[in-house]
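From the pipeline queue, job 12 of 40. The input is one protein chain; the requested action is below.

Action: predict structure.
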Amino acid sequence: MAEPATAAPASPRKATFDRSQQHRRSMYAKAQIAKKQLAMDEDDYRQLIFDEAGTFSLTQCSDAQLEKVLNRLKGLGFKPLPKAGAARPAMHPMARKARALWISLYHLGAVRNSSEQALEAFARRQLGCERMEWARQSDAFRLIEALKAMATRHGWHQRAVDGGRALSVQTLNTHLCEVILAKLKDAGKIPQDWSLDVALFRLCGVDTGEIAAIGPEFYQQLAAMLGAKLREFGLAETEQ
């Protein structure tokens, strides 16, 4: 009598690797890091998510909505941590000043990409050096003046018109907000009689009357909010 056939052992199931879920977890982590970097309280953080995605929870966002949330956080100044083994950003005075100008130009709609990589590519063309970290500080004026010239072309003047004196950081950041506001008005996106305070409240929900002291860093945040509206309306006129 023939012995019954035995079933072949089942092949071990291969472990699956869900790149989509890993990518979402990475975006969740970046959002949490951004919240800490920007020192946002829970209410402001949840409101930002709602403004960009229509929900207060990241877990309910689509991938596209998560990207919108992260882009908004980057616009407010969030800088993702470099990947392991990646070159760290240059931190000498030339690089810090160039970086501040570059981010402001992004808010102004003059540059398409606010990332460190985009700034490095621009600096490479101006300095003829592969990385800002290796550039001579004596060549800093070439990079800084190129950035200032771009700002001036887009209406953001870097010196006083009555004598060419240097402007304070506070004045520069206030002027940056006013220039973005003027672009929104010129395009017919907001009424001509809106002041900066009114525009910030109507467009961004920021009541400046409730803030005791407004410093240059706060005006930079306001510029980021207005700049996001500029891009939302398709009004960015990028050179880079």
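Job complete. Confidence is low (pLDDT under 50) at residues 1-17.
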